[in-house]
Specification:
single chain, about 90 residues, mainly alpha, about 0% strand
Length: about 90
């Protein structure tokens, strides 16, 4: 190992910013996928006449939509955008 190789605090901070931005983007994408699957589940449950399952899937869908709204928070949006702006 090369003892001369040290990561500066700026590089470490930049890496952390990238990791945070990437994890937030993954969360955003996962929520979109969850929303699509919840909508499909509701449709399929209704087609089978399983209203109790459709109702539960609808509750899940409402929760996902609430989380998606929270992802619109300007601070979260800023961190997701920062992931793309870190100069390396």
């Amino acid at each position: 190992m090369n003892d001369d190789l040290e990561l500066s605090p700026e590089i470490i901070e930049g890496a952390k910013i990238i990791q945070l931005g990437q994890s937030l983007l993954k969360l955003k994408n996962s929520l979109e996928y969850a929303r699509e699957e919840a909508e499909a589940s509701i449709k399929n449950a209704e087609a089978l006449g399983r209203t109790e399952i459709a109702t539960e899937a609808d509750f899940i869908l409402m929760s996902v939509k609430t989380l998606q709204q929270k992802m619109q928070n300007p601070q979260i949006q800023e961190w997701m955008a920062a992931e793309e702006e870190v100069p390396f």
